[in-house]
Amino acid sequence: MQSQTLNASPAEPSVVQIGPRPLRSESLTRRALRRFRRHRLAMFGLLVLNVLILLSALAPQISRHSPYDFNLQARAVEPSGEHWLGTDRTGRDLWARVVLGGRVSLSVGIVAVALSTTLGVAIGSLAGYFGGTLDMLLMRFTDMVMTFPSLIILITLVAVLEPSIYNSMLAIGLLSWPGLARIVRGQFLSLRQAEFVTAAHCLGVPAWRIILLHILPNTLGPIIVAATFGMGSAILLEAGLSFLGLGVQPPQPSWGNMLRDAASPTTLESMPWMWVPPGVLIIISVLSVNFIGDGLRDAFDPRSDL
Question: What Rg value do the Cα atoms of the chain yield, rounded?
Answer without folding.
Answer: 28
